[in-house]
Amino acid sequence: MDILNLLIQGTLLGGLYALFAAGLALMFGVMRFINIAHGDFIVVSAYLLLVAVLTLGLHPLVGIALVTGLMAGAGYLGQRVLLNRVLDEDILPPVLVTFGLSIILQNALMEGFSADSQRVPAGGFDTASLSLGSEIAIGLLPLSMFLAAIGVLGVLHWIFFHTHLGRLLRATADDAAIVPLMGASNAHTFALATGIASAVVAIAGTMLAMKTNFDPTIGPSRLLFAFEAVIIGGLGNIWGVLAGGIILGVAQAIGAQIDAGFQILAGHIAFLVVLALRPRGLFAKS
Amino acid sequence: MPFLTLDHVSKSYGALKVTDDVSLSLDATETLGILGPNGAGKSTLFNLIGGTQRPDAGRILLEGVDVTAQGAAARCHAGIGRSFQIPHPFVGMSVYENLLVGSAFGQSGTDGAARCREILEETGLLAKANLPAGKLTLLERKRLELARALATHPRLLLLDEIAGGLTEAECQSLIQTIQRIRDRGVAIIWIEHVVHALMAVAQRLVVIDRGRIVADGAPGQVMDLPVVQEIYLGIDADDQAA
C-alpha cells in the first residue's frame, strides 16, 4: 500500500512539474530560446496571486484567472520589446539576458516582499482530502492541480494541432525563416509563443503558491525541475512533458520516503539515469 | 502603373556586387522569365523582391507604394508569393497543413480549406495531402513549394528553378500548371535554367549576368542576341560574327 501511495502522490506532484516544463518546452521548441528566468516567472506568478488574494481580497480562482491574463500580456510584450532583440543564431545572448532577468526579479521580489516564506490560503481546500481505503488519502488540492495540468496540456495539444495559431507555431518550430513568406512576422509569432508559455507559467505558479511555501529565491530550482521534466520526456512532445513530470515527481516521492533530505537528489538521479540511457528523452520525436 | 518596380536596386556581400543597379518593372499580369549563369545573382533578386533581404541602395515599389523597408510578411500580404530553389517544407506538418499556414496568414482568402484542396489537386499533391511533408520526394517537395506559395493567394508568384531535375513528362505537366496560373491573371517571375520551359510560359525574358541585366525583351529576340549566346550558351560573340 505504501508503494501505491507513493506512486499516487508522486504522480500528482508530477502534474505540477509538467506545467513547469510545458512553458519552457514551448519557448524552446518554437524559437530555440532558453529562458533562464523561467523559474522566477513562476515565482512572480505566485506573488501576483498572493497580492490578488491577500491584498485585493479576490477569490483564488478569480486571482488565478487575473494572474494568467496578466502574465500572458506581459509575456507577449516582454518578448516583443526585449527578448526579440537578442534572438539570433547565437544562443548565448538570450541566456545572458534571461539570467540577468532572473537576478533582477529575485531581488525585486526580495525588496517588495522580504525573504519571508509565504503561502496563499486556499480556504480549507488545501487540507481537504479523499480517503481511499484506510491508508491512502488523496489531497483535493493536489488532485485538482493534476487534473488542471492535464486540462492545460490538453488545451495546448488542441491549439497546436487544430488551430491556425498552433500550425503557425509548429511551422515556426520547423523553419522560422520561411514563416514570414507565409505572411506572419516572426516578431509577432515569437511574442504569441511567449504569451502562451507565460499563461501556462502563471497557472503553474499560482498552483505552487497554494500548494507549498515559497520565497523569492526558489525560482532556479523550479527551473531545474522544469528542465529535468522536459529532458526526461523528450522535446517536441506535449504528453512527453507530462510523463517527464510524473517520473520526476514519483522519483522525488520515493526519495522523500527513504529520507526527507533525499527527495530532490532522487529526482536528479532519475534524470541522470534517463539522460544516460535515452539522451533524447523517453518520448522524443525521432 | 506597373505592379512591381525595381528602381536602381543594388546589393553587395562584402566586395561582391550580387545585384548591381538593377531596374525592372513588371505589369500586373505579365509573365517574366529570368535566365543567367549560376551565381549571377538571380536568387538574391528574389530575396530582395520577397523581402527576406534588404537592398543596399535603390527602391522597390509595389503598385507605386515604396515597400523597400517592409519585411517578408508585409510583402506576402501585399501579394508576393515565393517558392525556393531548395525546398523548405515544414517537415513536421502534413502537406495539407503546410498549405493551411500560407492560406491562414497570407492574403486573407474566402474559404481557406476549400482553396487549399483545389491547389493540392492542381499541383498533383492531393493523394499526399495527409502525409508529413518530410516524407515527400524531391519532386513532390518542389510541387509543395509551388502549392504553398499559391496558398498565400499571390498576385505575383516568384518561382525559383522549380523545373530543375524533372523528367520531360513531369516538366510538361509543370508547364501546363504554370500556364493555368498565368491565365488566371497572376503575374509570374520564373528563374529557370530549363530554357524551353521558360519559352513556353514567359512573355518576356530578362538575362542577368554578374548582378546586371544584360538583356530584356521578347523571348525569341533575347535568345538571339549575341551577348546572351555568349553568356548563356558559351558561344563567343566574335566567333559568331566571323
Task: Describe the model.
The complex is a heterodimer of chains A (286) and B (242). Chain A has helices at 2-31, 38-55, 60-81, 92-113, 140-162, 164-175, 186-211, 219-233, 238-258, 263-277; strands at residues 129-132, 136-139. In chain A, α2 (38-55) runs parallel beside α4. Chain A has a single domain (2-121, 138-277), classed as ABC transporter involved in vitamin B12 uptake, BtuC (Orthogonal Bundle). In chain A, a hairpin with a 3-residue loop joins β1 (129-132) and β2. In chain A, 71% of the residues lie in helices and 3% in strands. Chain B is of the alpha/beta class and 242 residues long. Chain B has two domains: 1-79 and 156-168 and 186-242, P-loop containing nucleotide triphosphate hydrolases (Rossmann fold); 87-153, no CATH class. Chain B is 38% helix and 24% strand. Chain B contains ten helices and ten strands. Chain B has helices at residues 42-50, 72-77, 95-105, 112-122, 138-151, 168-183, 195-201, 219-224, 226-233, 237-241, and strands spanning 4-13, 16-26, 31-35, 57-62, 65-66, 80-82, 156-160, 187-191, 204-209, 212-217. In chain B, α6 links the parallel β7 and β8. The longest helix of chain B is centred in the last third of the chain and has 16 residues, at 168-183. The mean pLDDT of chain B is 89. The chains are: A mainly alpha (286), B alpha/beta (242). The interface between A and B is medium-sized, with 19 and 30 residues.
